[in-house]
Structures are given as structure tokens and as C-alpha cells.
User: Fold this.
Amino acid sequence: MRDPVTGFKYPAEWVERCAVPAQLLLAQQGLAVLTSSGTVLYRGFTTGTTAAAACKASILSLSGTAISSVSIQIPCGLTVEVKVEAHTGRASCIKYAGDYPTDVTAGVIIVAEATPLPDGIHLEPGEGIGHFVRDTPRYKKGEPAISSTSLDCIMRSIIKAMDESGLSGVLVKLSIPKGAEIAKKTLNSRVGVEGGISILGTTGLVEPWDDHLEESVCGLVSSAKNPVITTGRIGLRYARLLYPEHEVILVGGKIGEALDAAKGAVILCGLPALILRHINPQILDGTGYATVEEFAASPLFEPVMQNTLAAFKKERPKVHVVLVNRNGAVIGESL
Assistant:
């Protein structure tokens, strides 16, 4: 059995240990994660998926029909059913976090209000959605904090709803009533986002890493012959392209535990931020930059990165670090 979200092939003994067929089916569909004990943990929906559902439902409800759920094609390619509450052009959707206990946005309500227009699509981010207060490598000052993958998902959902409703134009106002309050519990201000939370989601699903990571993933690292450890979805994608003959294992932020679990040589591959901050937690001190991503866009980054990787190679000679950018190009290695 293979996880359709990550491509990870579950060991047969894990599948055999699962005593609930209905839960196993959810893991097979990508809506849950199977652990080494046979326990199934539920994936949640990202703010991007939640916002897309609210937008689609608001448009569909313009007909006067109450809408209780909508199907959304999420960035990883799966189509999921999301519960909503919508009527007469106004929809609300509660963010479902699954089995991720520390998700500060769990239960947040995202609201969309749709108004027919003669033509065109207008998405208007409003209350509770953060905006950038400085230019960053990927966003300009004043832009709403909506990731490109989430925006694509939202726009596809709007277009789908317009097609189903026969509309040629629509204005959708998107808001998160408690977004500004919840944002105080996040790291948004550190990455230049203020006024609310971000609408994010690389795959459209929230992983329950906190619960099962150390139990199952570190076990995978210790048993793998040629492990490649990566930290996120982008790293996962490019690590598989760079090392097709290796076993690529997603470990999130638990880099230290995963490296300690490795029996021999191991490759650590992914975007610079988590990896460099793990190697050198003080890497940004004195640089004037708030994030590694912003620092990486400056001419000062290259020598600091190289020195950091060289020092780490002396400390852990069996670990080969490979840093990639968001386009998959290798920008640094610990040779």
C-alpha cells in the first residue's frame, strides 16, 4: 500500500497491524497516515483548502440552495470533501486540523461572501488575512499572505463553482474574523506578515507529524540502507529526483533525531531554512535579516553558508548536506 500524498510505500507489517479496515482505507486514500504500530492518524486541511471550500460554497449558494459540503481538488492532486455552511452567497468553513495537536489555526472559521458580476473574477482578501509589511524574495510589500499553491487552489475552486452555477463573473470577499487574534500565536511577524494569519498549504493537507514522527520515521531512517532525509514537501520532491535509488524520508523539523537514528552515511537534502538553522541556530545573528530565505537572497549568504556546511562536515563527516532552492537547483553541499 502506498501513500498517495508522499509516495511512501507502507511496510506490509504496518498494514497487517491495522485492525480497523475503514481507517486503513482512509490511509489508502491519503486522508490519514498509517504508523508502524498499525495506528491511523488523520490528516487535516490547510488554511488554503479551507479557504477554497468557503469560496466555492459561497458561489454555489447564490442559487438559494443551502450547501453543507463541497469537493475541492487540492494541490497534491487528491479531491477531498470539505464540510461548509453556506446560503445566499455567504459561506463559512471551520478548519479541520486532524490529529495535529499543536495546530494554532485548528478550528478557525474562514468566511467567503460572493456577489455576481457581469464578468471576471475578483478575489478580495479582507479582515484577518495577513499582509506583507516588507518585500521578501517571493512577495512584495502590501501583498496578502496567500501562498501561490493556495491561491491556485482557491481560483480553481471559484472557476469550478462559476461553471456549475452558470455565472460569467463574481466578486468573492474572503475573511478570517479571528485571524488577527490567532496571528499573535504564530511566527508571522518574523517573516514580515502582520494583520492576520497566512493562507497556506503545499499539499492541501496538514500532517500529524507531532504524534508519529519519532516512532515511525526514525525507525525508517535506522533501517534504510541509503537514507535521504528531507524536511518538507519541496525537499521531498527534489530529493526523489536527485536520488532516485535512495529511500527518501520526510522528517519535518526533527532533523537531529533522524540523523542520530541513521546507522551509517546519510544525505540531508532540502530547502536551506530548517537545515541551516539546525546546523547553526545563530546563523542570522548580526546579519540584519529576519529569515534564512531573505538572507539567502543577499550576497552575504554564500560565504556564510559554505562556512556553516564545512564546519558541519567536520562535526558529522557521515552526513552529506545538499541544499536546494525552490526551483530544485543545488545551491550548496557539504563536500
Summary: The chain has three domains: 12-43, 45-205, 208-333. The longest strand covers residues 79-87. Residues 52 and 154 are 4 Å apart (CA to CA). The chain is about 35% helix and 25% strand.
